[in-house]
Each structure stands twice: as C-alpha cells, then as structure tokens.
Amino acid sequence: MPPNVVDPGYRPYIVAHNLIKAHAKAYHTYDDKYRQSQGGLISIALNADWFEPADVNVVREVVTADRAMQFQLGWFAHPIFKNGDYPDALKWQVGNKSEIQSLPQSRLPSFTEEEKNFIKGTADVFCVNHYTTRVVSYFTAALQPHSYEWDRDMRESEEPSSPTTAIPNQKAVAWGLRRLLNWIKEEYGDPEIYITENGAAVEWDDFERVMFYKTYIDEALKANNLDGVRLRGYTATAFMDSFEWLHGYKFLFGLHHVDFTNPDRPRTPKYSAHYYYNIIKDNGFPLPDDEKMLYGHFREDFMWSSASASYQIEGGWRADGKGLSIWDKFAHSPSKILNDDNGDIACDSYNKIEEDVAILKQLKVSHYRFSLSWPRVLPDGTINNINEAGIKYYQRLLDALHAANIQPQVTLYHWDLPQAIEDYGGFLNENFIKLFTDYADLMFDRLGDKVKIWITFNEPIMTANHGYGFGSFAPGISSGPDTLPYIVGHNLIKAHAEAWHLYNDKYRAKQNGIISITVNSDWSEPRNPYRQEDYDAARRVVEFYLGWFAHPIFNGDYSEIMKKRIRDRSLAAGLPQSRLPEFTPEEIKRIKGTHDFFGLNHYTSVLAFPVDHGDAQSIEADKGAMGVSDRTWLDTGSSWLKIAPFGIRRLLNFIKNEYGNPPIVITENGVSERGTVDLNDVHRIYYYDQYINEVLKAYKVDGVTVKGYTATSLMDSFEWLNGYNVGFGLHHVDFSSPNRSRTPKYSAHFYYNIIKDNGFPLPDDEKVLYGHFRDDFIWSTATASYQIEGGWRADGKGLSIWDKFAHTHLRISNDDNGDIACDSYNKVEEDVAILKQLKVTHYRFSISWSRVLPDGTTNYINEAGLNYYHRLVDALIAANIQPHVTLYHWDLPQALQDIGGWENDTIVTKFRDYADFIFDRLGHKVKFWITINEPYNVAMIGHGYGVGAPGISFRPGTLPYIVGHNLLKAHAEAWHIYNDKYRAKQNGIISITINSDWSEPRNPYKQEDYDAAIRAIQFYIGWFAHPVYNGDYNDIMKTVIRERSLAAGLSESRLPEFTPEEVKRIKGTYDYFGFNYYTTVLTFPVDYKNLQHYDGDKGAGSTVDLTWLDSGSGWLKVTPFGFRRILNFIKEEYGNPPIIITENGISERGTVDLNDTHRSHYYEKYINQALKAYLLDGVDIRGYTAWSLMDNFEWAKGFSERFGFFYVNHSDPNISRVAKKSVSDYSKIITCNGFPHPASGHECLNPVEETAPPITDNNATVRFLGMELSVRNAETGLNVTFALLIVAMFGACRRRLEPIPAAIGARGRIHPGQAGSLAQG
C-alpha cells in the first residue's frame, strides 16, 4: 500500500508511535477547544481480528493467542485506554528480538513519562473494526531479517469450519466478534464500544452477506445482553460498492450495488440493505411471533405416538427363517455405512418386546408406530413362502401393546424390501405392485384385527430418489438418475393405491381401521424474500418433494409444476416425451382419494433459490432449485437437520390449503445428536417444545385438522448411513452392552409431560389469583440517594465513592454521572406530589452518608444536608406517606474509602456511629429502617467484579468475603443500638435488605443441577441471610470455601469466621426480612478447577429460558414464577419471618414510551405471585415496594436503563417528571389492595379521574403509542387511553360469557385471557 516503503522491522513501529501521538494531540485539541461548545465524542478506530488459540488446553497456545491480540489491537489500544504505554508482551517481545539481533536498543520506540500521561485516556469510546478470526499457534523461526511478523513468534491459519467470503483468508467467523468484545471489556476496563466497521465481500446475490450480518450482529447482541459488554453502536461496511484499495473493484462490500459501467453510477439496494433496514427498525432481533408459545390443548382423542422402523431396531437379521432385505445386503457392503455398522443386532427388539413396551408405557403414549419387516414374514417376498415365526413376533408385539392400552400404527414398508424381489428388478418391475398387494393382503388378514391404523409406504421419495437416483440408500442404484426415480415413484404410487383399495374393499368393514401413505417434506422458504425467482424456487422444492406423491393421491395426477418442468426439459434435450411417466385416466381415478389421513414426516426447513443445471437430466436439474440453511438456525447431530420450528406450521398450512384440509397425522418429527451420549438432551427438549407448539398453533389458530403427533424415535437405533454414530432416541441404547439396555433421556420426561397435559396448559404460576393482601399492607415505591438527589457538592456535601467512580472515564455508560441526577435535592415538593399521585402508603429512600457526615464521621455534621431529609420526611408525613429509610445504599463517603472502606474493620464502629446519629436526629419521625441495601452487591459488584464503586477487582477470592463479613457486623451493631437505645421511645422496626435471584436447575432430572441451584441460592441470599436469621454462615458456603482454600495450599478458609460472641450478636438482628427480587436463572454445575474466586467457590453457571420475556437490562428476564418460589424458600429456610419486599421492578431502554405496558404486565404478574405466596402458601408478606419511583441514574448503565413509573426529562432544565401508563395500573392495585374479582363490583375498579402532574417543558418529546408527541400531548393521550381502558374493562366484565381475545402472556407465551378465579383457571 502507499507509500510503498519496505522496512518491516523499524518503520511500522515508528509510524505507529507517531500515529498514537498525533491522535492524542487531536483528542486534546478537541477536548480543550471544542467539546464544551460542540458536545461531541472523539476516539480512534482500531482494527482487530480475533485470534483463537489452536489448542485452548495448551497454555503456550493460549499465551500465543493473547500475544497476537496485543501485537494487533493492544499495540494502539494499550497506550490510549490503559496506561499510556505499549503492552508488556509487545515491549518484551520486540526488545528480546532486538537483543537477539545484537541491536543496541529495542526497535520499538519508547514514550516519555510526559507522553504517557498525554496519551492515556485520549478516547471517549472504544471504536473497533472487525471482520474475521484467525487461528494461531506458537512458532519461532531461526534468526532472520527483523520484521513485525517475525517479532510475533506465531503462525496463523484459517478457522477451518466457518464459511468463506469472496476475499481469500477472510472467513466469516461470527463467534469471534463476541470473544473480541469480551476481551476488550476485560482488558480495558469495560469501556463503551462502537463497532465502526463490520462486513463481508460476497457475490452479487448477497445472501451470504445477509448471513454475515445476521450472525455477526447476533453475536454482538449476545455480548451486549448476556455478557454485559457496553456496546453502543454498530456500523455495517459498506454503504455502497466502492474502490476497495488494492483490490480495486474486484471485491465489493456494499449494501448497495453501484453500476461502475454506467457514467451515472446508479445505486441499487441489495437484499442485505433491506435486511439491515429491518434490524435497525427492530433495534436488534425481537422474538418472532413464530417463537411465542401458545397455551392450549389438542383434541381429546389426539394420538400421541413414538416411532421406530424394523431394520433400525429389530436385529435378528437371520433369526427364525427371516429372509435377507436390501438393507441387509447394503449394510454388509464395505464402506457403505459409517464405521461399517449394520443392523444385524441393532436394538435387539426382536428379543425385547417386554422392554420396548415397558418404555412405551412409561412415556404414556397412546400409540406406537412401527414397521413390519417384509422379509421376516415372507423371506422371498412372495406368499409362496410364509414365515410363521416372523408373523408370531408381530402378533406378540401387538398383544403386548394392547395389554398396555397402546394402539399400534403399523407401516407395511419402511425401506427393507426383500432382496429376492430386488434381484428381479425391485420397484422398477411392475410385478412389484402385485407382490406388494399380496403382502399387504396377508398382513391385513393375519394382523388386521389388532391394528386400526395402517401406513402403506414410508417416505416414498427416499426409496425413489435416494435408492434409485443418488444410490446413497439401499439398493444403491445410481445408473439412471434421469428416469429411474420417476419410474420407481410411479410404481410406488400405484402399489399404494392397490393396497388402499384392497383394505377398503375387503377389510375395512370388519376391521374398522384407516389406511394411508406417509410422505416426507422439508418446508422451503425463499432465500431472498425480495426476489420472485426465489419464491418460485421454494414452491418447486415443495412440489418436487411433498407434491410428487401427495398430489396424485389427494388431487389426482402429478402437479402441473412437475409435469411441465420435466416435459419441457425432456423435450429440450431431444427426448420424444417426458421422462415423468403418465397415469392413464383409469389410473388417475383409481389413485385419487386413496387416503384416510395425510401421513407427514417433517424435520427441518430450507431457504431455496434457483439453480440452472443446463441440459442435465436429473431430478435435481428438473427441480431447478437448491436449498440452504440460515446459519443462525441451531445445529443438530445431522448436517441436513437445522432447527427451524416455524416450518412445520407453514407446511401444515400448505397441506391444508393445497389438499383440502385433510386429517393429518404427523408420523415422524425429531432431532438427532452425535458423539458422546448426554442424557441431558436439552436441544431435543427445545426442539420438541418449539415444534409441537407450532403444531398446536396450526391446530388451534389456523384450523389445520391435526389428529396426531409422533416423536422420532423411541430409542437410539441404526440410523441408516450414519450407523450408530447419530441418535434420535428419547431413550439411550447402550450398544456396547449385550443387553442393549434402554435409559430414558431428559427429553423422555419432557415428552411424557406434554402427553400428560395433551399440549401446553397455562401453568398454575400464570393463572391469576383473585384476592386481597392484609388490611395494613405496606404499598411503597423506592429510590436511592445517589440515583436521584444530585446536588453532589451542594451545601457542604462530601464526596462519595460513587461520585469518584462516576467521574472516572469509561466507568459509566456515556460517561453519565449523578451530579444532578433527578435533582431531588431541590425537588422535595415535586417528588412528594408524584408519590401522592401513585397512592403509595410508604416511600423507601436512602440517606446519603456523605451528605450528612461529609468525612463519614460525627466529627463534622452537615446540618444543611440533614435539613434536606427533615424537609423530605415532614412532607411525606404531611401527605400521609410513611418514610421507609435506608441508611446505606452504596454511596460510602470517599473519606472512609481512602482508609480502606468496608475492608477496614473500623468501618463497623463508624457505621454504628452514623446510624446512632441518624436515629437520634430523624428517628422520632421514622418507623421503618433498613441498615444496608443489598450487601451482596456491595461485596461482589464493588469489591469482586469491580464494575460498581469503589471498582476493586484484583482480589476476587478474598476481598468480597472480608467486605461481606464487615457488612454483617456493621448491620448487627446498628440493629443493636436501635434496639437498645431507641426502640422503646421511637417504636420503629429495623432490618437489613438482602437481594437474590431465584435459581432453578437447568435440567430438573439431574441431581447435579439441583445441587448447583442450591449452591447458587446459598451463595447469594444465604450468604447474608443465614448469619442474621440462623446464626453464622451456611454450611454449604463454609464447607466449599474451606475445602477449596485448603486444596489450593492455603492454611485456612478464605471465608472469615465469626467468633462465638459475634455469632450470638448477629443472630436475630431483624424485625422483618427486607428482600429485593427481580429475576430467575437456570443453573448448572461448572468446575472452575483451582480458581480461587467467588464464582469458583459457587461452582455454578447460569443461563435463561429463551422464551422468557426480555427487559431493558440484559440480566433481567421476566420470570414471575420465581418470585413465589423464593418467597417460599425464605419461609421454609428462615422460619417464616415477616417479609417486606423492598425492591421489585423492570427496566426499559431506548426511545421513551409512556405507554409502558411491559412494566404494567410485570407488576401485575409479580404482585399476583406475591399474593399467591401470601394467601395460598402462608408466607408472611407485610409489604411490597416497586422499583422505582422515577427513571434515575442506573449505576454503571447511567441513564440508559430506566426502571421508573415516571419519566424524568433531563433535557428540561426543570428536570420534569411525567407519569407513564404504569402509574395508573400500579395505583389501581394499591387502591384495590390486590386483585378483586372483576365481577365483584369492588369500588376500586371504578374509574377515577386522574390529576396530571405539572408539566414545565412543552418542547420535550416522547414516544406514545408509536407516535412522537410533546410531553403534554402524550400525557393527555395517556389519560384518555386510561379512561377508555377502564370503560373497555367494564364492558368486558359485563360480557364475561363472550370469548376473550388472545393476549401475549409472560415468558413470551400466548394464552387466552382469564376471567375466572384461580380454580376456574
């Protein structure tokens, strides 16, 4: 590249050195001269690949990968974002190489101390350009001319499994972006990150670019929402095709095509431009409607089944006179089957009828689909040689099924044709039709009195195309792909029709059964939804797949699409007629209508696009379409099978519309795994959960006549070409054991429950309970001093640790701080006014320790600060609102942090003195006290992870425990001084507030997951609750931390011990259980080896259910059920103490919308769970506090996440408060003191005229019902909407017997609205 200077050992480092200094100079110029007037941000855009170690288990390779990161990204980022200097790895490596070359000094220039200070911190955000990932391994060459490449000591290679792009060596490795973002987060102190370039060069048909953006942006979203990376922007490269540096116009990155042959250079949007537009419009990837769960049931006579096939499970390949099948021969041919596996023994079901029926009974299926082995009953395929032993096997199986009340679904042919028939031409010989009819006649005669459901052929396309076209299945013929599959398919259709007529004419009247054929099909979507050619290709895929066999049977004759395509292409190739055989009019008449139901096998979906095969004569060329997968669809154990649940619903609707809504029985549906067996097959559970729910939607919502569902398969078995390397089973079969033992997987339990419930009933957790809380129930809302007060240096206030932390660059999103916050220090009247509007009985707020005691001690009392709280408390009492005061909500005086803060045990006395002072000065007005809010967050977030003040993270294995220890002792001392000195005269109550998620086992059938969930809870809520309520730390914490400490060579546990006197003094220091709760996680064990860290001690990881509703915070999913469960845990674990819920709420981010229905939904569901805990479970709940009164400074997220009932307009100098819709919804719950039945006529349900708060800013705009409105107009709209909703509600109450429309429920599931009681459900 220009200027084309070759000096790889010196000049790159010199140029970089000057670039860094030039950047710093530009930054300071902007900062000093322009920032205040222009209000902008400035940074540097750094490019970075992700470097993955070739072997993550080899330390040297991991170190090499990190060195690669430091040589590329760290080279520039480290001086700017870390310490003003190059990373140590870069300095040592270049210095060492220079020394080897006997140079007098390092080829890497050095910064002076003055330059370091000048460079450090010269970026407002971290801007990174990322395209690909490289795999690196350690490599050092002999001494050679010095260069940047030689200095690194590594070898690069491509990531082998990822898709290519148009540019060599630039593969699309989406997961590398997430790892890079997390590396930046950890390496550079969690900066705000902007992705300033990301894109791919592909062909004009840019589906691959769409996949690139979809997968990369999805990984960015995961980093933001799951990993806590503070990602603030994404830039797609490039806006349009352009001159691509050294590549000229060869490689094009644009979202828009530019016609460089046209002097006007017209721009045309590509598919990727439309796609990127939709991502921007949705601000990410909202949960598609297809993935929202529907609650409901299938028809009462719904058939729940599981399936197998004779060759796959029976074994006994030569037992008792059985003849050879084409699969016996095919599987014994070398290299046809993976590992040369075969079905000689398989699952040995020929000898295990009792075992198979036993696991079917455990599943509680109503039906079992299996196939008959034609050569087992007719060894040579003809009725001239009947094998009675084979028939007796099936009679015994049928008898056992009936005894277990399981109805058989019997398939006559599932691919294992007698080899004797194949030797005479098999399906190509029309005599096959007569032989199949004779075989069917024998089976109907000998078994039909015990069988009510018959299937003639399973997946005829597989026999025709894979057996006689590709030759990949038995009998393995591939010599005539242009004609043989069509001939075979033709004969299969005619054979099916003859068997159907035989049953209909001879057996139906006396046996009263039904019979049909099972066809299989993927669903096909257009790859590019903006191209008609792709829609046409998708239709052809379905017609050549499903329609090939379904159209003649259900509509008469082949589809016009098939006939025309094959005829036109045959004639164009010079053939006298179409390669697709024709049915005579008599045959059409005999074939049409030969069905009693539509048997359907479905597994996956594809994205189709047209492909021109030229003059090639084959089915694939006739179809003229190819299918690919969306790379974001989940993988399985089979490369062809991607998880795409939406497709089954769309295919079912296609069948409904194309074939007259026939009754449909889904005869196969399932998913595979490969490799090491894991009984915890959560991917299969997800598959069944999503696919079966899509079937329910087709049945309940779309009116598709679905009569049954079959899970494939009952057990792991011989999986055709993959042998035993792939398993579809609900049960694991141990093929290494002669007994072929069967063990249920987690999915078997899951499927059992779906069968038991006949679908997806609305969980009890989500049914509304009508009733009331106790008469003196506390209804409150909450704030915290640093989050709302502002006035950070007003009237003598001292600095707090959050003042310092928020003023540290890159610590807070957007470098926000609480200097002004909501300005509550100057807005007592406004805050009390909105509290009155909310109708709360109590208000929980915290005192800023540094506002009343600037240095943290009583040596200097700031009366002005204390007077603020006097005014607030007096105003609350005048409004008949009781103050609920928190002494410490994280804002420790910085003066105390300077002498060790919570690590210094002198803090215990200082906190006691502070508490004593506050009790003395405010206690006569306050009846409810909290000593410390969420000690877990003080200990872990502030002193473990370091993402909150004071930001300490370098001793995560010891410091959090020391801090927690002192927090507990400080709480106890404050409680005792209140109890001993003030309780009698002030008559208040005091406690500590503890926070915790609820933890569920990820797999409820794995004891290890249960144990992990218990550990997670004991390390969270139990860490602080157990000493206060039960005395001392819980045994789980003490045992685990001690054992791991000793195993690491320490002399004692890293968890401090309480003396007997301290245990006694701490135990019982509560008057109620203050509890903050927001969400639930799914927990599983994680082995951190010898890592001495809180997370290593806990030994548990967590995840979430993908169907849980999101919030504005990545960590907060809407999980109401967990609230009730953790309240019951507190009841059982701590002796049913009186509980006051001191925080509970939900956030939003992005554009302000006053119609915050998600918040109203959250409160309704969570508070109703609390009511259930109180009324049904006997939990002693005394009060509930909604977080938060108003949008405020949300700690490390600044003002980007908002939990408030009231929107706070920071663009207004008056910082006005504006009510959201949730204000009226919460105030109604308060007025009703719970949830009265809609038909009760309770007076709280009557509409009440709302008084709007004063609006001071007429220019600010917010989003309301999708419109940009002024604050005043939005509030008017809100009040009108609320009034209309009240009217609508009463109308609904009067029409309780009318159908209620569906509504989106918790966890993203759709369910009918309830108007009945809990018992009515």
From TrEMBL:
It comes from the Eukaryota. The active site is at E197, E668, E1143. GO terms for biological process: carbohydrate metabolic process. Keywords: Glycoprotein, Glycosidase, Hydrolase. GO terms for molecular function: lactase activity. It holds the Pfam family Glyco_hydro_1. PANTHER family: GLYCOSYL HYDROLASE (PTHR10353), LACTASE_PHLORIZIN HYDROLASE (PTHR10353:SF38). Homodimer. Belongs to the glycosyl hydrolase 1 family. This is Lactase-phlorizin hydrolase-like. It comes from Pundamilia nyererei.
